[in-house]
# Entry
Amino acid sequence: MGVGRFVYTPILPLMHTQAGLSTDAGAHVATANYVGYLLGALAGTLLPALVRSRTVLRSALVLLIGTLAAMPATHSTTAWMALRLLAGVASALIFVVAVSSLLGQSRDHPPHLPGWGFGGVGAGIALSGLLVLALRSVADWQVAWWSSAALATALALAAWNLRHEVPVASPTEAPAKRVDRRFGALFVSYTLEGIGYIVAGTFLVAAIGQSSPGRLGSGAWVLVGLTAVPSSALWARLGRRWSRPGLLCVALLLQAVGIALPALVGGAAAALLSALLFGATFIGVSTLALATGAELRFPRSVALLTAGYSVGQILGPLTVAPLLHHGYHPALLLAAAVVLAAAAAAAVLRIGFPHHAVAVRHSVPDRARRTTPTDAGH
# Structure
């Protein structure tokens, strides 16, 4: 899923220069993928049988590979949008099925273990970034897409026999007896994060390449993936020791700095630090936000937060599209400001948050305190 969902980011600069894709059209193609992802996430939520089906997983894997292979077969923006929409649907279904299996099979293991499973998204980002980095000087954008389809095929074969197990619900996910207004602050924060993070997740490589050699942008994207691999497990471990809203605020502040850096400071050091901060936080923010929603015991918190986050992802490229005529740097600055607003909302959530929850997490055995840091909006 990390390959199929995010390989568009390092290939986007090649499509601008070689396939005639305009900046506006590039934003619309990205948005189509996020719309498809929302549709797939909703299907997985509303039709639980899909999550338990190996046939759905295998069909989604084949569909995702097919969309990657078909991208070079056309120069039509409309066709590209349709293919990326289907890729979004397939990616969401793959993620939901895989997470369900992951949580079910890891229930007898430490709670941070699923975080390493979510790191697979980062590994896919890193592999796709390395692939495009290796190809950009010897091949064109079409070969990059075909090669990503081949990479996705190899990974799909490894995942072909993934078996399903029903995850054990955490006691902290029980419905609350009354509506907690703090959930509203969390919802606003996580929706704003969806808007801000996806702008960097889509345009970071192109933005770095705007003022630096193209290889630096691709190399930075590889670093994003490598840093993302352990990030979810790390933030989950920290969440067992410190207040999750406080950690969420810190993660969002670090991410805002990372997003703004390439727009404010040129050079390799700024680009690589930006990649490091972004990769270390974007999956971790999801882990912390969804675990916080479960801790608040708000009914259907994961579904509601995922919906807000997914809508934010759709709005992100559309929001910055008018700024792209002036390059990618203004878009990154606006995205950083949105993530700062998300941090402010998280800071509001921290006020009056039940501090006893940390003590509870220390005193309750691992199996009993497991939360579900799943996110169909990644």
In short: The two ends are 10 Å apart (CA to CA). Residues 207 and 351 are 36 Å apart (CA to CA).
